[in-house]
């Protein structure tokens, strides 16, 4: 699979093969009378169908970057294109629509609704905005895809941590998004279940052709991706295209 990492500034024509184009993203926040620079000019592109990990230690700016590319926060300057749509200056209403249609999210803590069944949790995003087909049929299809067709009517408390994360992954795919972003998806799992979740993500990428981005501080988790983008001190420090080892 062809991969690329291009520093870009200003407008340029994007290839239809580019799922995410991050252009010179900067983020600063007030600290007393001064401002602290968290992101200092980050640029990269992610191709459709890639499985990419974003790695960085605590304080590197990784979490801030993740919030911006997921449409949960806005940059001080720079642009983020998701599926050729610039989300960097959108108001909250439009951002919510983009998040619902173009971005699937998976969280460390699963974020399932405890009173709903696995099937109902997967259906939830489909009741926001307009989506084709039956929410029930779509949820059943996705739960079968992640190996949980026998758990449709179980609530989160009746599921193991690994099963809950599988439900969360199925939910992230419900609206047929361009990109699925997973924030420390194995952080609450033991090594065995964490490995199973990573194998599932790789398998889903192969089956669906979706673009998957994992944010993690764990190099072992990152090594499952095709490409590793390391963030250090608010900048892209290095990129590994070998899919398994970050060059020190």
Description:
This is Putative ABC transporter ATP-binding protein. Keywords: ATP-binding, Nucleotide-binding, Transport. InterPro entries: AAA+_ATPase (IPR003593), ABC_transporter-like_ATP-bd (IPR003439), ABC_transporter-like_CS (IPR017871), ABC_transpr_LolD-like (IPR015854), MacB-like_ATP-bd (IPR017911), P-loop_NTPase (IPR027417). It comes from Ktedonospora formicarum. GO terms for molecular function: ATP binding; ATP hydrolysis activity; transmembrane transporter activity. The chain has 248 residues and is an alpha/beta fold. The protein has a single domain, classed as P-loop containing nucleotide triphosphate hydrolases (Rossmann fold, 3-Layer(aba) Sandwich), CATH 3.40.50. Helices cover 28% and strands 27% of the residues. The chain has seven helices and ten strands. It has helices at residues 62-69, 92-102, 118-123, 135-145, 161-172, 191-208, 219-222; strands at residues 18-31, 34-47, 51-55, 77-82, 85-86, 103-106, 179-183, 211-216, 227-232, 235-240. The strands form two sheets. A six-stranded mixed beta sheet has the order 6-7-8-3-9-10, with helices on both faces. The chain has a four-stranded antiparallel beta sheet with strand order 2-1-4-5, covered by helices on one side. Strand 4 (77-82) and strand 5 (85-86) form a beta hairpin. Helix 5 (161-172) runs parallel beside helix 6 (191-208). It is globular. The model is unreliable at 1-11 and 244-248 (pLDDT under 50).
